[in-house]
Design a protein that fits this description.
Blueprint: H1 5-23, H2 31-34, E1 38-40, H3 44-68, H4 71-90, E2 93-95, H5 105-120
């Protein structure tokens, strides 16, 4: 089982890749196939922090607009806040090849194939 959020995201993306390849009459994935997958590298806590800060700036900008009726003073906080939220949701994706030292690709590949097979064949759980 994936130990951290990056491994869990690699496993989820690997299972999706397996499904696409099987649908196209391909073969299950290998460790080399995992290197081209892009995953988000922000932790859920960091994503939540960026979203909260972004929303705070956006609300502050809207409040400034309501109080001063000046678009020049309010547009920057609103844009900064919206940018923060977009950055958090985008999650700074990186290819697995760039994180290869932190991940054991062979173990992840084995787990992906095991989960994919158990998902496709519900009788294998019994």
């Amino acid at each position: 089982m994936g130990r951290n959020y990056i491994e869990k995201r690699v496993i989820k993306a690997g299972i999706a890749l397996c499904e696409r390849r099987i649908d196209m009459k391909g073969t299950p994935i290998t460790a080399d196939d995992l290197k081209d997958i892009e995953v988000k590298t922000f932790s859920p806590v960091l994503q939540g922090f960026y979203i909260v800060v972004g929303l705070a700036f956006a609300v502050f900008g809207i409040w400034v607009q309501i109080e001063t009726r000046s678009m020049i003073q309010s547009i920057l906080p609103v844009l900064f806040g919206v940018g923060n939220v977009a950055f958090a949701l985008h999650g700074r994706p990186r290819k697995v090849r760039e994180m290869e030292g932190d991940l054991n690709l062979m173990d992840l590949t084995a787990e992906i194939v095991q989960r994919f097979v158990s998902k496709m064949d519900p009788k294998s759980k019994e």
